[in-house]
Design a protein that fits this description.
globular; 5-stranded parallel beta sheet; 15 helices; TIM Barrel
Length: 377
């Protein structure tokens, strides 16, 4: 259990498979985000239909509502949300970071006020492990200290060091829980260090010397820094990442960013972008994003994306989708969310096929040229 196997490489890009308690995840893989135990507007059957294999849920939100004890009493997170496949829970570090004035980071943990009712809460590395153990996902993330993309070197170094100390505590608490069910869950550490490559390498060295891990994540990117800085960090870090570990780039999920991450050796990614953009009327296509609120689609009887096999593209014309948004019908939100999630899952699968064929470099160049060549509608 938890073994990762690489089947092929093409440059830095990898095609692999990760064995988890609730199924095998083929990589590269895009994870739909089910923050509060649901991917917005989509049911578990929808997720199965679009080919999702690994779904993300969030520790912070589920801890606040309905509470991990409630989830545990109702059979664990898989049964609670009706999802039979693998699950990953984020530690909540990013959500706490986004609270800004509502939180205070100390050496012991993070003190914050609930965005729901203002109640005072305190999360420690140990408590985050316990919450995730109660929730019962296949993959649990260690608590990390996230800083903004424009953070100074000193701030990034301080957060990195604290994340390392928190990891030691989280790992110790996890080791106390695991003997009761060793094949139930795996704990994954997160590399911090801001936009400073040498700090990222320092973080990696510390992680690798602190335990025998089954996966590794790169966090603290896509938090306000330029994309060029993100790419520079990955270009420097990936060559020294252990090949045997699945690599998770956290919070990255626009199409061009997914392809860029895969080309730099990342295996897993997640983002709320597909459902958020879908609810706002924007659809992902190989020709770039399409705004379905545009009046030009009022009498368009073509499918949203002729190459897509999702329910939206095989069942409804663009004119109808535009109508749904014009009259503010909820079905429009579901159909575009469904398509966007399917698009990113297909994109990762297409990248995997190109890696297996050793044609990824040419495929990715051609995809990007098409994606960025046409006028946005």
């Amino acid at each position: 259990m938890f073994e990762f196997e690489i089947h092929a490489t093409s440059g830095a890009a990898r095609a692999g498979s990760w064995s988890l308690p609730h199924g095998v995840v083929e990589t590269p893989c895009f994870m739909p985000v089910g923050t509060q135990g649901t991917v917005r507007a989509l049911s578990p059957k929808d997720l199965e239909a679009v080919g999702a294999t690994l779904v993300l849920a969030n520790t912070y939100h589920l801890h606040l509502r309905p509470g991990e004890d409630t989830v545990a009493r109702l059979g664990g997170l898989h049964r609670f949300m009706g999802w039979r496949g693998p699950l990953l829970t984020d530690s909540g570090g990013f959500q706490v970071f986004s609270l800004a004035g509502l939180r205070r980071v100390t050496e012991e943990g993070v003190e914050f006020h609930s965005h729901i009712d203002g109640s005072a809460r305190f999360l420690t590395p140990e408590r985050v492990v316990e919450i995730q153990w109660a929730l019962g996902p296949d993959v649990a993330m260690a608590l990390d200290h996230v800083v903004a993309g424009e953070a100074s070197r000193e701030q990034a170094a301080d957060a990195l060091a604290r994340t390392a100390r928190w990891l030691e505590r989280a790992s110790a608490r996890f080791a106390e829980l695991v003997p009761d069910a060793p094949a139930r869950q795996v704990l994954v550490p997160i590399i911090q260090g801001g936009i400073y490559p040498d700090l990222r390498r320092t973080a990696l060295d510390g992680i690798l010397s602190s335990g025998d891990w089954r996966g590794i994540a790169v966090g603290g990117l896509s938090v306000g820094e330029p994309k060029a800085a993100t790419h520079a960090v990955l270009d420097d870090l990936v060559p020294v990442l252990p090949a045997k570990l699945p690599r998770y780039l956290m919070g990255v999920g626009f199409p061009e960013d997914v392809v860029a991450a895969i080309s730099r050796g990342m295996d897993l990614g997640d983002c709320v972008a597909p459902t958020r953009m879908g609810r706002n009327g924007t659809a992902f296509t190989d020709d770039g994003p399409v705004n379905m609120r545009n009046a030009r689609y009022r009498e368009d009887d073509a499918p949203l994306d002729r190459s897509c096999d999702c329910e939206t593209c095989t069942g409804f014309p663009r004119g109808y989708l535009r109508h749904l948004f014009a009259v503010e019908e909820l079905l429009g939100l579901r159909l575009l969310s469904l398509h966007n999630v399917r698009y990113l899952i297909r994109l990762a699968a297409r990248a995997r096929a190109a890696i297996l064929d050793r044609t990824f470099e040419g495929w990715s160049r051609a995809w990007l040229a098409r994606y960025t060549s046409r006028e946005r509608a």
